[in-house]
Amino acid sequence: MKKKILIFPIILFLLILLAFFYLLIIDRNPSELPSVLINKKVPEFEAKSLLENKNFISPDEFRNETTLVNFFATWCKPCFDEHRYLKKLSNEKGLTIIGINYKDDSKRAFKWLKKLGNPYSNVLLDPNARLGIDWGVYGLPETFIVNSNGVIKYRLVGPITKKNYDAFVLKVKEVEK
Amino acid sequence: MQKILLAILVYLMTSQIVTINCYSVEPDEFLQNPKKELRVRNISKNVRCLVCQNQSIDESSAPLAKDLRILIRKKIEHGNSDEEIYNFLAERYGDFILLNPPFKISTLFLWILPFVFLAIGISVIFLHNNKSRKLDYNK
Fold first, then answer.
1. How many CB atoms neighbour CB A147 within 10 A?
2. Do B127 and A136 touch (CB under 8 A)?
3. ipTM, 2 decimals?
4. Mean of the pLDDT values across residues A36-52?
5. Cα gap A99→A171, rounded to integer Å
6. Right CATH number for B2-102 from 4.10.910.10, 3.40.190.10, 1.10.8.640, 1.10.1040.10?
7. Which of the 8 DSSP states describes residue B29?
8. Interchain CB distance below 8 Å, A8 and B128
């Protein structure tokens, strides 16, 4: 009986060790956070547009088709790398891409889009990160997939790359199902 | 042995000094009203910086931490309560942003498990002692 009790903490210890070891070897990024906005309506806000004279009003302008909301800035190198994939995505049918120019100089953003091409149907200005905070953004770039009911279905932290492009397109198609 | 203890003591003291000095709040952020400023500082100490995840936004010099500090100051000036500010942040960034996790069903294990383990530990020691005492009597 005494030996049985003594073996219990050892088993418990090994189980905990196993759990830690599992977390150590699985493919995950411990600094990546799940968004709490998933399956919630898009935040309400009004923002100035870089290209139009009219303010963008959320959530009213989200209820037509699947929309990507991409936070970007000209000072963000991964955003530059991601740009070509956003352009590729802008050719997809039934998909709108809205860019949010985060803590940036609007003139610089204008030049940047002129040079690289513009995948966005609208570019909103967020000079003081107020929109970013409403969307729970903590590192650029971040891309949200919003379905035609104005509900956020997915968030990608970090750039769209060659590696994750196909999986991302699949996610985009899934949100209307 | 004494030297080792002294070295540990010196290390602990100096590391303490370093942590005291590394607040990142910049002078231009301060509010005029010292009472309100104190409230802001207290809230900032309980809010996690999501860029450097083991620091509070009070200690972090990341741009996001600064934006959040300024936002908290604006909210305090608007007359929001501490509770409202914590809720505002948790609604956007999740409970992870709070350095003090709230007591909820999803965090139940987090709060209760240490006490469960403590109870198991104490009972194991108690049972073990009881048994060896009985064995002593039997001798």
1. 20
2. no
3. 0.78
4. 90
5. 19
6. 1.10.8.640
7. G
8. no
